[in-house]
Amino acid sequence: MSDSYAVDAAYYDLIHEHGDDDIGLWQSFAGRTDHPVLEVGAGTGRIALALARAGYEVSGIDPSAAMLAIARQKADDAALDVRLYEGTATDLLLDAEHYGLVLLPADVFLYCADGEEQVATLKALAGALHFNGTLIIDLPGPALSLDPVTNGQPLLTWSGPGPDGQALDQWQVHEDDLAAQTRWLRVTYETAATDGTVRRFSSEHELRYVYRFEIEYLLRLAGLRLADIYGDYELGALTNDSARMIVVARRTQG
Known about the structure:
It is a single chain. By secondary structure, this protein is an alpha/beta fold. The chain has two domains: 9-141 and 211-251, Rossmann fold (3-Layer(aba) Sandwich); 148-208, N-terminal domain of TfIIb (Single Sheet), CATH 2.20.25.110. The chain is 24% helix and 34% strand. The chain has helices at 9-15, 23-30, 46-53, 65-77, 115-128, 212-221, and strands at 37-40, 58-62, 82-86, 99-104, 129-140, 155-161, 167-177, 182-192, 198-208, 224-230, 244-251. The strands form two sheets. A seven-stranded mixed beta sheet has the order 3-2-1-4-5-11-10, sandwiched between helices. A four-stranded antiparallel beta sheet has the order 6-7-8-9, with no helix packed on it. The mean pLDDT is 96.
């Protein structure tokens, strides 16, 4: 299987270095259990390492070898004991009823290609959840829904010095399909050297969006129940203006 984040990995931490407004919420949920935490889509370790640094026992899984290599190096540099595994929830053998908190942070769940993969993923995570544990899915809210009006329009999403000091621009272009609830996304990194040499590196991603009552139905199919739903990282109400949809679920049976 190809690594869809092989290109993004080199730039991810730089571009997201100020994107930690969700960390406090995940720490507060981690503090409600005495059992380990599992992060699905751990990437370069932004969340997993923060939780480990706060004293929690953390494991992370991710299908990207390039992203995990960075996470492991950061964990080693900080002398943090974080277990990191390459793979997905459906192809790894997760410890049964082991985790008090299972977290799928920003948009990770959108990488499930269809309903079958969504349900299979949730079932696998339900089986790994302690009987009184919590599963949280962080999804785009109504204010960040699919937008076919802007299909094909390049958008400059980040600009600044790159890791090597060269000028770096990140561009995104998408193709949204409302009927299929999908987004095709191309992310392009453009570097400009002092001698005028321009280089471009691109990655492509396929995302399947999930809506409010659809996720509740998917949870039920997987043996989970919706406990709460919020519209931001301060646990505000979900409204039409919410950029996030924070779904909190628990097992239907102990």
